[in-house]
Every structure is written in C-alpha cells, then in structure tokens.
Amino acid sequence: MTAASLYRYVLLRLVQLVPVVFLIIILNFFLIRLAPGDPIAYIIGDAPIADELVADLRSKLGLDGSITQQLLIYLSNVAQGDFGFSYVSRAPVTEVILSRLPATLLLMITQYVLAIAVGIVLGVLSARHQGSALDVTVTAVSVVGYALPVFWLGQMLMLMFSMKLGLFPAQGMMSLRYSMTPVEKVFDIAHHLVLPALTLAIFNLALIARLARANMLQVLRLEYIIFARSKGISERAVVYRHALRNAVLPVVTVIGLNIKTLITGAVLTETVFAWPGLGRLTFDAINARDYPVLMAMFVFVGILVVIANLITDIIYAWLDPRIRLQ
Amino acid sequence: MSGGKSVTALSLLRLVPMPGRIVAGSITLNGRDVSRLSDDEMRGVRRNEAAMIFQDASNFLNPIFSIGDQIAEGIADRFPSKRERRAAVIEALHSVRIPDPERVATLYPFQLSGGMQQRAVIAAATARKPSLVIADEPTTALDATVQFQILRLLEELQTEIGMSLILISHDLAVIASVCSRVYVMYAAEIVESGPTRDIYRNPAHPYTKALLGSILDPLEERKPLTILEGAMPDLSAPPQGCRFHPRCPAAMPICSQAKPPPATISSGHQVNCWLHAEPAVAA
Ligand code: SF4
Hints:
The complex is a heterodimer. By secondary structure, chain A is mainly α.
C-alpha cells in the first residue's frame, strides 16, 4: 500500500517534470537570441568576404531559417546532448560540463550530508534540553553561521587551518603527486575536501539546526505527543519516532527550496578553493565570455534544480502520507 | 491545552507538558502514589494500568503514522511477534466497533471521520485492557449521534474489559447518562462529590446549584436560567478562603477568610461549603 502509493506519486511527478524542462530549454534559446549582434558579423569581422560565402556560413550554422526552424534545430541538438563547443577549450560543451560534474557533486553531497546530519542532531538535542548550555551555544553559533558570507568564511577557514595551522590544503582537489595508490588518492581527495565542504556546510548546518530546533519544540508540545506518551512507550520512541519525523518535514521543504542557492555557493566556494567543479567552470566562463558553456550551464542548472525539487518532493511524500495519498 | 479540568486529567498520568508540574497533592492509583513514581515506573503505569482518551481525537493521532501502527506500538512488548501484534490490533479495532478493521488499520488519521478517529484513539487506549481509563471530554468535538455512540461504546467497554472510567466533562447530560459518581470541580478544587442521583436531585453547593440551573429545560419554557456573575478566577492567584466566594450568591463573611471544611450531606455525598459546615467546626 505504502510502496504502491509512493510509486504512483513519483511517476506522476516525473510526468509533470517534462514540460518544465522543456520550458527551461526554450527560455534559454530565447535568452541567446536576446543577445545583441549577428553571430555571423562577429565571426567574419572586417574581412571582405563574398556574399555567397556569407550565405553558405549562415546555412552551415543553421542561422538561415526562420526563428521556429532555429528553435527546432536547437531543441534537437539539446535533445542529443549537443551544446556546441567551448570558445576557450574547443572541446564539446557537454564533455566539459560532465568532466566537472563529479567534483561538484562530491562537494555538494558531502556538505549536505554533513549539514543535515549534524544540523538535525544539534537541533533536536538543543530542543530536548532547552535553555541548557548546549542549547544556548547552538543557538548563538547558528545565528552567526547563518549570517556569515560564504566567501569570507572560506577565506578565514583557509587562513586559519591551512596557512596558519597547515592542517589542510588550501587549493585544488588533489595533490600534484604522481604514483598514488587508489587508497592514498581517496584520502588525498578527502583531505582537500574538508575546508570547502565545511565552508558550504556551516551555512546550511546553521539553518537546519535552527529550523529543527524550532520545529521540534513546537511538535513536542502537540497533543499527539501527549497521546504517544500516554501509551507508556519509551521517551526515546516519543521523541525520535513521533516528534522527529514530524519536525523534519518543514526542514525537508526548506532544504529543497534552498537547493538553488547551492549554485551560488558552489561558484563562491569553488573559486576560493580552486575546486575544479562546475562553480569554478561557470566563474571562468563568465570571465572568458565563453557563451556556449554559460548557456549550457543555464540549462544544466535549471534541470538540476528541477531534479532536486523532485527528490525533495519524493522524500516529503515518503515521510508524509497526507501528500502521498492525496 | 487549557482549563483546569484538562490539566487535572493530564496530571493524573503525569502528562502535563513542560514546564508544567505537579506542585501539591497526591494521586493514588491502585494503592501507589503516582506523583512519587520514577519516570520509568510511570511509563509502566501508563502501559499497564491507566490509559487516556482525549477531546479532539484528530489532534491526538499522529498524522503521519497509520492507525494500525499507532495502536501496535502501545502493545509491542506484550506481543513481540509481528503476526500476533497485528491480530491484537485488528481485535482492538474490532472491539471499538470499527467496521472492516483490517483495512482501517492501514489507513492514516486524515482518512477517517471524527467519530472513527475517536474510536481509533479508544482502541489504542484500551488495547492493553487498562484498569482505568480517563476520558477528557471525549465527545465534545463530535456530532450528537456520534457522541451517543461513543458514550455507549465506553459504557460497553467498561463491562467488557472491567475498567473504571473517569469522565471529565462540562456536559451535564453526558455525565448524568454515563457516571455513577460525580465530583464537581471549581477553580481546580473538588467542591462537591456524591452519587450522581444525589448530586442532580439534591445539590448542596451553590456552584453545583448554579451549574444545574444553567440547563435549559424544554418542558419548562418559562423557568428562568441561573446565570453566574463574574469569570473564572486566575488559578495562579486564586481567591482566599472559598475559591467561589467572589461569585457566590450565598457568600458570608467567613467565606473569604477560611477554606470551608468538608461536610457530609448523606452517605457518600460530601460538600465543601460553609453553608453546610457543622457548627462545631464553623466556630
Ligand atoms: S463557602 Fe461560602 S462562598 Fe463558598 S460556596 Fe459556600 S457559601 Fe458560597
């Protein structure tokens, strides 16, 4: 029953996804068209060139048809994963993006797992021991953590832990050392990962801890907690089964809504720590006016946000039968 | 959570949420003082001796767990095997006259009507066959016909599992139809107690009289309603002496100075009021 209804819900949401992604791609197309100037004029420059050659180039680049025809060409290219070539590296844009994806995914997943796990634990503990030293500390630290700008925090952590204490590397994702065993390699990457992941995690951790605490406090006063307790079950079951799952629901929503800020976070953190991921790629593409890469990033990020929202909704539905069975 | 009666109900099982606590008085259940038990012993009491039913069942069921799960968790230690536990859950739902218990066990609270939710709460509370069930306004949130069914159910369960029932209610008709003994409370204190019949026929305390006078009698259209002046006192700073004296139509000078001693009206019928105090005590 539960599994079947969840399955139906996921399927429904997946179908709803299709038009959204379609719309993102179309919007992106018109965004390109909005840019002033004729690409052909840009390519030719001042060189005196015969009209037939210009026409030839136009048709080769698919720019001779009507705007609808061009849109169709664009859509079919995108559908095949073809976003053109990077101005800078001359490599296919899709290849460039995919090669950077793992670094960003690693950073994002690490920091989110860290932020969610530690944030919820701290939130729950400080709600259960309201007014204790732990609670006061968590509340104070999370207010600060929430307010700090990511790039500044990143630089401070770098100053402290890598320049001064020399505990962690400041830049990059791997040491430039050859001949590392696979195990050494994993540790090397993990070592490099600590500071950037921490930089990103602190903001989310603060947010999640504050939310989890507030929700937990609220839920623990609700009637169904009293009823659960009246059944004589252990306090642990009351708090972690009955209260936590309800208290976590709004946290899931906020995390989902926050996913889009991940992109800015990635750009800032990856730039500070020279992390070779998508954020760094976007930053470099902006500086180099590498339009094909930028355009592809827009579509990519758009789809990423949509997928993240889908995952959030699925988790929510899994936790809350009222959503799943509506 | 508000109101003296509900807090009283919750204190009986030590369920008043933080920062509330029991300041004075004792609660004795099956010969043990509940207020002195450890948290673990208290859980044992809730598990094995006393259960509670509440006013608005929809708020007392956890919205994200199935009805079956919410009943099952209370009996998990008695039925460690999953299959037996499931059978016991179905049996509990069956005992509160829920049709199609197998299906209802898989449903979530929001899929049930108010009456069905209250039955589910009763099933969860009585699944362990407690010796005492405390019901706090169990029917106030329900339609009149459903109210009647739930009250019947509670009465039937009383004899079926041999439990005692403490019913906390404002509804004088409900009390008259269900209870054998009544305790009238004003401002968190018992002011009069006795067999239901005696209390209704021969109320001794001015507050009880006023309560009974506030019922509309359809047969006596012209009977004037008694209306009490004033409002409930602030319980954090209750009036001196008899707590009812600021509103009592029969108040005397002594009423604001000293607490009225208990007096016996007839066998089992007691009242705390200076009007009925024996002269020796009053002097
Ligand atoms: S003790 Fe006095 S004030 Fe209190 S109820 Fe009796 S008569 Fe009224």
